[in-house]
# Entry
Amino acid sequence: QVQLVESGGRFLQTGESLRLSCKISGGTLDQYAITWFRQAPGKERDIVAAISQSGLQTYTGDSARGRFSISRDNAKNTVYLQMNKLEPDDTAVYYCASLERTSPFYYTSTPSDYRYWGPGTQVTVTS
# Structure
């Protein structure tokens, strides 16, 4: 079974930077596009960024644009989310997810479209 596991979440202060990792097991990363979502308590799960299988296409959500970037290292079966200039509003559980390999899209903004999810990693940003 394909599994995704996030890591790297921690407590930070406003303006700091952090890199999250998403590692895939039970499969080969280059077969999967990966999307990062985040969810704050009481809020809906929102897309943060996505990267295609090749890494040539990326997407960043409105709240992340200009501050966050996504990259992948297929040899390490890992996708990264680099987060800069963090703000308290970035506080959330961050998840990585993947659509079916047969999906014609490398990402969608709808969480229910995704087949595989990691358990999440907590990022907390204080003022």
Remarks:
- The radius of gyration is 13 Å.
- The chain has a mean pLDDT of 94.
- The longest strand covers residues 18-25.
